[in-house]
Amino acid sequence: MQAAHRVAKNTGILYAKMVITVFISLYSTRLILAALGVTDFGLFNVVGGIISMLSFLNASMAGATQRFMSYAQGEGDLEKVKRIFNMSTVLHAGIAVLMVVVLEIAGYFFLNDVLNIAPDRLAVAKIIYHFMVVSTFFTVLSVPYEAVVTSHENMLFYAIEGIIEAVIKLGIALYITYSAHDHLVAYGFLMAALSIFLLILRRVYCHHYYAECVLDFRKYYEKTLLKEISSFAGWSLLGSGSSMLANYGQGIVINMFFGTVVNAAQGIALQMGGQLGAFANTMMKALNPIIDKSEGAGNRSLMLKATMSGSKISFYLLMFFYIPSIIEMPYIFKLWLKNVPEYAILFCRLGLIRNLIDQLFITLTSAIAAVGNIRKYQIYNSILTFFPLVISYILFLLDFPVHTIYVVFIIYSLMSGILTLYFAKSDCGLSIFIYLKNVVVPCVVSFVLIMFLSYIPLLFNFNQNIRLLSVIAISSISFLIVLWFIGLNTQERVIIKPLLIKLKLKNNK
């Protein structure tokens, strides 16, 4: 019960942050699209797509480090946490240098031989790519500090940092709107500078407030621990790296066959899906330390309960925002953007459906990582990750339409979910039948019912504003009713009731 309250409190803090940052970020995207134009915006998304890649990479490496820290905190060993921090700092410094070398070499071939870029913008594309490599270097260096904050479940600092980042990005968008310099170059430079600022902010805060943030490589050097963290991070990096390449490769394949204008549509779809998906993913930030600490304390039963409840609740939170967005996507895009790139609406709808499928199994990956035996899972998952790219490339050669790539990725997400279920059973002792019964079936049934009810206003000839408000209202009301009677089981309702009573008493005061 205490763990549930802690997760609820941290999730609440993160949602307050998301309410602020989502609207700032979406408005920033509108300004950036207007300032750069469709062609340059598409160019940035295909060349500077490494930024979106970093979200996968950074989350994976931070998750690997946070897993070891939370596990040691569950054991109650502060000295071990200090050793983990020092060894992870050494490890990520090495990874940062290695990535700079690899990316610079790979960039030469991609920019000159692979990507479909207009000759007059090739020089600018190369400058943008170098800025993104700099951003990569400093983002990787900041991973141990992000892991420290997450392992301590300090979501208040994480939220404040996120708001500061969003405000700075808005400032960047406003600057390039009125700048006399090349807008694309200015945008790339300022985004790289932002990654340096965030590293300094995290470093200063963590060294001031957390006892384990003491850099003394001689005192805390432990070869065995470094090898253990390196092995875990390596396998974790294999999985996230392959996922990262597959997602970035999605943009490259689209670029090869359809050009930068369609890349702009993909960039808009990723922005929309990323901002909406962040509402559910923030809960994972609050839940992962609980999963790892429970396993570290030897409480496998609590770990599995947290995993199942986390999958359901994160899916429901995603569904709450996705359903009205999927239904009213054309009108939302019309309100959001001055010029909506072709295919953006279709890409976004298909992308949201894929995200919902992924969300059903997202906490199982955390459970597998908490147990620690991830080698086989990451190998099989990495091989499967490249399935959609290969299939899509072949289909495009056969003149299939551009949205085919999203359909293939949806099929991949289903296959990946089945693979994750199998390893959760073999490594964690999860019952597949119980998971399907308690998580997958209630989630799917709830989604279909709420989607059906929310679609009713489209059957009437309402004004567009009234129709949008009607869809949101019906979706929200049916969400609460369906969730309480179908989506949640008896035990989950027992946990939620005290939280609702506590919230009601606070409001009455």
Could you walk me through the main structural features you see in this protein, from its secondary elements to its overall organization?
The chain has helices at residues 2-47, 50-75, 78-114, 122-141, 143-151, 155-178, 183-209, 223-258, 260-296, 300-327, 329-336, 344-359, 362-371, 375-385, 387-397, 404-428, 432-454, 464-487, 490-508. Helix 2 (50-75) runs parallel beside helix 9, helix 8 (223-258) runs parallel beside helix 15 (387-397) and helix 9 (260-296) packs across helix 13. The protein is built from 19 helices and no strands. The relative contact order is 0.11. Helices cover 86% and strands 0% of the residues. The chain has one domain. By secondary structure, it is mainly α. The protein starts with a helix and ends with a helix.
What is the helical fraction, as a range of percent?
Answer: over 70%
Name the structural class: mainly alpha
Give the DSSP E fraction (strand runs of 2 or more residues): under 5%
Mean pLDDT equals 80
> What would you report as the Rg, rounded to the nearest angstrom?
23 Å
Report the end-to-end length measured between terminal Cα atoms.
24 Å
- Count all strands and give the number: 0
Q: Which stretches are low in confidence, meaning pLDDT under 50 for 5 or more residues running?
A: none
Number of domains: 1
Total helical elements: 19
H/E element order:
HHHHHHHHHHHHHHHHHHH
Give the overall shape, derived from the CA principal axes: globular
How would a textbook summarize the main sheet? Answer: none
